[in-house]
Write a structure and sequence with these properties.
- The complex is a heterotrimer of chains A (333), B (256) and C (358).
- Chain A has a two-stranded antiparallel ribbon with strand order 1-2.
- Chain A has 15 helices and two strands.
- Chain A is mostly helical.
- With 256 residues, chain B is an alpha/beta fold.
- Chain B has helices at residues 42-50, 72-78, 94-99, 112-125, 140-153, 170-185, 197-202, 226-233; strands at residues 2-13, 16-27, 31-36, 57-62, 65-66, 79-82, 158-162, 189-193, 206-211, 214-219, 235-240, 247-253.
- A six-stranded mixed sheet of chain B has the order 6-7-8-3-9-10, with helices on both faces. Chain B has a four-stranded antiparallel sheet with strand order 2-1-4-5, with helices on one face.
- Chain C has 358 residues and is α/β, with parallel strands linked by helices.
- Chain C has helices spanning 2-17, 22-46, 74-82, 101-108, 110-113, 128-133, 146-154, 167-181, 184-205, 233-240, 259-265, 280-285, 293-296, 316-327, 337-348, and strands at 50-53, 59-62, 69-71, 89-92, 138-142, 159-162, 214-219, 226-227, 243-245, 255-256, 269-272, 300-302.
- Chain C has a four-stranded parallel sheet, sandwiched between helices. In chain C, strands 9-7-11-12 form a four-stranded parallel sheet. In chain C, strands 1-2 form a two-stranded antiparallel sheet.
- Chain C is globular, with a radius of gyration of 26 Å.
- Classes of the chains: A mainly alpha (333), B alpha/beta (256), C alpha/beta (358).
- At the A-B interface, helix 10 and helix 11 of A face helix 2 and strand 6 of B.
């Protein structure tokens, strides 16, 4: 059995267990079991009032949240792993190229003046910001890594300033939601969110899956890519588009969740090695598993909802350090 | 047939002409050494031959086809290029690095055949024992050998080496040249930049001497005349050809 | 001012000179001379120090009522207008010029209507330079703006920090601002008015039987799961309106609760803070909320606007009445919110909003 088989086997049982996990004392695991049992074996609609509540909690609250947590974790991790390889920098995360600040600006704009759904606007401006970064870094048919990171910093700065201007100019009552959105959350998960994020994430992740081996090539360097027959500028764009697409889709639905896109790819590499042929698919399944696990903890641990980013850092951080200490060979020389 | 053919080739960085109106032909299955002083444009010329740089005027043909009109993967199937040194951030295994040489034949991911080719290349270079080692932890010389294995796995018809000896110890240098002979007997064309005149003279090759943005001399060993060496390397030397072998003794740097 | 006050007895004496009674005249002259001499001393001793304590617990002292006020929070600004001290306001929050509140302030103050009153900042950003240039006697600001407060105080500008967490705080704020502006009488008057209104209303609330009292969930605009618990003005609002706050078991002023917890609480009525993105209809049609009693009964209401329905000024009694009317419509059929509004605005704002079409 290959080392990573476990990663592929984990998500489904975990998702199943997650259905039983929740904060409400009124709905016990046995309630959930009874509901599932009658649903599967009798196909009976929930009749009693209590069963209706169980159905709402399981089907409309827990299930979309489980799927959202999994997809967001999968998207951020896959995007982070791809971009780290593409930019040849282990400190890169999906937000580096302006995505998060672009999306936050888009969300604020939708909340105040634009007549667009917040998620759509965040998605569009996230993509736009990364596109702008790419455009600014493009010079004579080439994309240098340094100019890409620099452009990313500049574009992030510009959109953060725009966001501040919006905050300054508009009625604070209209913009109250932005703070929670920026901190990232999963507690507002709904089927609508799942619906809007699934297609871009599946397309983007599948795309990255198909070209995953090329990440090995591009991560060796532009010259080393070119001499073995790939156009580095084109290949970077081919990686950037799906990586941004999936990260934007997840940011649009769940806000800006930190740590996942940066640290989880490293955890995976430390556990299964550096070959992106394996890292990319494992990023998808383990990234999803990781965030789902963290969210399960956050759902049970606290009386009220704490932004998930706090837990990803608190749980991901020590695990990351443990793996780092255990690691035999590191990055660079 | 010519492996490489260049006509009216010019190139410069930031307006400074480094190479001017260069013309040459390199026969198929030949071994050519590019010589010249630091900064004379040897490496640039090599990169032009590899299609890494685009000439500002003139053209280069590889087996009769314009190298800059070719697709990236077709070019990679014809021409392999080995840079002076290489680093990577991610500690891939040696095998993972070597197998990237198979890129021109791969769209999604490598197959058993590609892996087999990579193993053959590592065996040929003598680094099969390093197969699962982390590339980042190798010495500069070992990394050079890995990159040589990578370019062999690529199976081009022409291989361009930029200063291949820099990180190699004497044992590995000898191994390297025996590999080169091996490759030549396999009908490959080898072109390399070497700055060490003494080493270059020991090889059984054709030579191109670059100086002042153009080709100062080209041909077999008889181009190593006192005048040419003085012109190209700016040194005085003594040549002893009694034994039928060139023994080149640099005497002193010329005053300019 | 003190000079004229001292002169007036003297003028009176000159008039009485014409009346001709010399003894009295002499007597009066000597008294008035004496008065003239000691008057500065008297006025000095009567201009006693004004001491106020802000919401950080910091004591501020002034030797006369402040006349140059920079007020960067809307709720405190409202209080100053209720105290009739708007002439002493020299700068306001940028937020006064945007949103729903603008039309009210425009009706109250020509300078705001014409946008001539400077706006050097708001609850979030403050332009220190602009504030300093205005040479204010005091800056009224949100007490959590610690950095701004620090840099203003370093420049010798007194800062009155405000933080309203409970309805009690509103009374305290009015009292302190009354002292600060020398309008204590008016402060007590409007506090009394507010308490009176509430007391009368409570008598009616008490008639609602305990068993009929509704469980209420309050929803902030930050998100559907953002609410306030026991120690908050929201709790005061719900309680005064005869409801029970579903999350009164927790102390927190502002938290995000889980959807499952709200389902468990199963509130009978949902009160939404003014919300730009979500309407009661969105909550009613959201499947996640469908088992909740308030949604089943369609008892989801949004407080329509910030100026009238706020929780940080003496107007809070109006929100109390609104929530009570929503929760117990059969008990408060007679209450006409329009009439209530006009009565309240007239009492609090010196009839200045009357007939302005608001």
């Amino acid at each position: 059995m290959k080392k990573e088989t476990l990663f592929y086997l984990l998500p489904l049982p975990l998702a199943f267990i997650s259905i039983f996990i929740g904060p409400s004392e009124t709905i016990t695991p046995s309630d959930v079991y009874n509901w599932l049992y009658s649903k599967i074996f009798h196909g009976t609609p929930a009749d009693s009032e209590h069963m209706q509540i169980v159905e709402t909690v399981v089907f409309d609250i827990r299930l979309p949240r489980i799927i959202t947590a999994f997809l967001v974790g999968a998207a951020l991790t896959t995007s982070g792993a791809s971009l780290q390889a593409m930019i040849r920098n282990p400190l890169v995360d999906p937000y580096l190229l302006g995505l998060s600040s672009g999306a936050a600006f888009g969300a604020a704009l939708a909340m105040t003046s634009l007549n667009l759904p917040v998620q759509l606007s965040a998605f569009i401006f996230g993509l736009f910001a990364v596109g702008l970064t790419y455009f600014l870094a493009f010079r004579r048919g080439e994309i240098s890594i340094i100019s890409m990171i620099l452009s990313g910093v500049i574009v992030s700065g510009i959109f953060t300033s725009f966001l501040t201007i919006i905050q300054f100019l508009t009625d604070p009552f209209k913009l109250q939601g932005i703070i929670y959105w920026i901190m990232g959350n999963l507690h507002n998960s709904s089927w609508n969110g799942v619906k809007s994020m699934t297609l871009p994430i599946i397309i983007g992740a599948l795309w990255l899956f198909l070209i995953r081996w090329r990440l090995n090539v591009i991560s060796l360097g532009d010259l080393e890519t070119r001499t073995v027959g790939y156009n580095p500028a084109l290949l970077k764009l081919m990686i950037l588009i799906p990586a941004t697409l999936i990260a934007s889709a997840s940011v649009a639905v769940a806000g800006i969740i930190g740590m996942v896109g940066l640290a989880v790819p490293h955890m995976i590499r430390m556990m299964i090695g550096y070959d992106n042929k394996r890292v990319i698919p494992v990023s998808f399944v383990f990234g999803g598993t990781f965030l789902l696990l963290v969210d399960n903890l956050s759902r049970t641990v606290s009386q009220f909802e704490i932004p998930i980013g706090i837990f990803t850092t608190l749980i991901g951080g020590p695990f990351f350090i443990y793996l780092l200490k255990r690691l035999r060979h590191g990055y660079g020389d | 047939m010519n492996a490489l053919y260049a006509k009216g080739l010019s190139f410069g960085y930031n307006g400074n002409r480094l190479l001017r109106d260069i013309y040459f032909e390199i026969k198929d299955r030949s071994f050519v050494v590019l010589l010249g002083r630091n900064g004379c444009g040897k490496s640039t010329l090599l990169k032009l031959m590899a299609g890494i740089l685009k000439p500002q005027s003139g053209m280069i043909r590889v087996y009769g086809e314009d190298i800059n009109a070719m697709s990236f993967s077709k070019r990679a199937k014809l021409v392999g290029f080995l840079a002076q040194s290489h680093n990577t951030v991610f500690p891939y295994s040696v095998q993972e690095v070597v197998i990237t040489g198979r890129a021109p034949y791969i769209f999604y991911s490598h197959t058993k055949k590609d892996r087999q080719k990579a193993i053959e290349a590592m065996e040929r270079v003598g680094i099969i024992s390093l197969k699962d080692k982390s590339y980042n932890q190798l010495s500069g010389g070992e990394r050079q050998l890995v990159m040589i294995a990578r370019v062999l796995a690529q199976e081009p018809k022409i291989i361009l080496f930029d200063e291949p000896l820099t990180f190699l110890d004497i044992y590995n240098q000898i191994q390297f040249f025996s590999l080169i002979r091996n490759l030549l007997s396999d009908n490959m064309t080898i072109i390399m930049v070497i700055h060490d005149l003494i080493t270059a003279l020991k090889l059984d090759a054709d030579y191109i001497m670059l100086s002042g943005g153009g080709i100062a001399a080209s041909g077999s060993k008889d181009i190593f005349t006192r005048e040419n060496i003085r012109k190209v390397f700016n040194i005085d030397c003594d040549i002893d050809d009694k034994s039928g072998e060139y023994v080149l003794t640099p005497l002193q740097a010329c005053r300019t | 001012m003190a000079f004229f006050a001292a002169m007036s007895p003297f003028i009176m004496i000159k008039e009485s000179l014409n009346l001709g009674n010399t003894i009295i005249m002499k007597y009066l002259i000597s008294i008035s001379l004496f008065l003239i001499l000691i008057c500065p001393a008297i006025s000095y001793s009567t201009a006693k120090e004004i001491k106020v304590t802000d919401f950080r617990g910091k004591e501020l002292s002034f030797n006369k009522p402040v006349i140059r006020i920079v007020c960067l929070i809307e709720s405190a600004l409202s209080a100053i207008y209720m105290l009739g001290q708007e002439k002493n306001v020299i700068a306001v929050s940028t937020n006064v010029y945007t949103g729903d509140v603008f039309r009210y302030y425009a009706a109250l103050d020509e300078r705001i209507k014409n946008k001539t009153l400077p706006t050097p900042g708001n609850w979030d950003f403050v332009n220190i330079e602009s504030v300093v240039a205005l040479k204010p006697d005091v800056v009224i600001i949100w007490s959590k703006q610690t950095e701004t407060i620090k840099s203003l105080e370093e420049r010798g500008i007194p800062v009155f920090g405000v933080f309203i967490n409970r309805f009690e705080d509103v009374y305290r704020e009015i009292k302190e601002l009354g002292k600060l502006t020398g309008s204590e009488k008016r402060a007590n008057e409007i506090i009394r008015y507010n308490k009176n209104e509430l007391n009368n209303f409570q008598k009616r609330i008490q008639k609602i039987p305990e068993a009929a009292r509704k469980k209420a969930y309050f929803m902030w605009a930050q998100g559907n799961l953002n609410t306030s618990c026991r120690e908050s003005s929201v709790n005061d609002l719900l309680l005064l309106a005869g409801c029970r706050n579903v999350c009164s078991s927790l102390p927190d002023e502002h938290i995000v609760v889980s959807m499952e917890r709200i389902i468990k609480w199963n509130p009978d009525i949902i009160i939404m803070w003014q919300n730009a993105k979500t309407d009661p209809a969105d909550i009613i049609s959201d499947v996640r909320w469908r088992t909740i009693n308030a949604v089943k009964q369609r008892m989801v209401y949004e407080l329509p606007e910030v100026f009238l329905y706020d929780l940080w000024t003496l107007k809070f009694q109006y929100a109390v009445k609104m929530v009570a009317k929503w929760a117990y419509p059969e008990h408060f059929k007679d209450i006409d919110m329009g009439v209530e509004r006009d009565r309240m605005l007239n009492a609090l704002y010196y009839n200045k909003l009357k007939g302005s079409g608001l």
